[in-house]
Amino acid sequence: MQVPDSDDLYRSVRKGEYSTINGRVAFSASAFSDRDRKPSVDMSSIRTDARDARKSPEQGVAKLVAGEVRKSSKIPIYDAKQRRTGEHSTDVIHRPIKDDPDGEPDNPAHCQIECHPTIENDNRFKRLKEALAAMANKYGWVVKPGTA
């Protein structure tokens, strides 16, 4: 299924992945860390209660918008001589979790933010995470940490 550009995307955020500055939340790039360099989010059109996107009640939920992720997260590619040779395109891919062999709970709303070509470089992935954090900062919390 194509994730519509208008879909809100929910990301669970742990303590230490955000700070509060002048009363506003500021998400850090670490809020979008992922060992496979494909940050997980939940589609709001399937996950209608954002609180359910949390891994635990102590966590909060940040918001992105699918169309903004696609348009605003272009990561440059440079060759060995630091000449720009292209860019990674970014997409939101619906990847529901069902009967996961590693024990991950079923999640029909699960999506991944993926780049093409695949990001193989930590510095480039850091740029993606920073772009996602900046987008999330525009919206603030959808669900504040520790709320029912």
Any overview of this molecule?
- A hairpin with a 5-residue loop joins strand 6 (75-78) and strand 7 (84-94).
- This protein has helices at 66-72, 122-139, and strands spanning 8-13, 18-21, 24-27, 40-43, 60-65, 75-78, 84-94, 110-116, 141-143.
- It has one domain (8-143).
- With 148 residues, it is α+β, with helices and mostly antiparallel strands.
- Strands 6-7-8-4-1-5-9 form a seven-stranded antiparallel beta sheet. A two-stranded antiparallel sheet has the order 2-3.
- The model has no long low-confidence stretch (mean pLDDT 93).
Q: Rounded to an integer, what's the Rg over CA atoms?
A: 15 Å
Order of helices and strands: EEEEEHEEEHE
Anisotropy-based shape:
globular
Number of alpha- plus pi-helical segments: 2
Quick check: average pLDDT?
93
The helix content is: 10-25%
Q: How many β-strand stretches?
A: 9
**What order do the strands of the largest sheet run in, or round the barrel if closed?**
6-7-8-4-1-5-9
**In percent terms, what proportion of residues is strand?**
25-35%
Task: Tally the structural domains.
Answer: 1
Overall SS class: alpha+beta
Quick structural gist:
The protein is α+β, with helices and mostly antiparallel strands. It has two helices and nine strands, in the order βββββαβββαβ.
Task: Summarize this structure as a short list of keywords or feature phrases.
two-stranded antiparallel ribbon; 17% helix
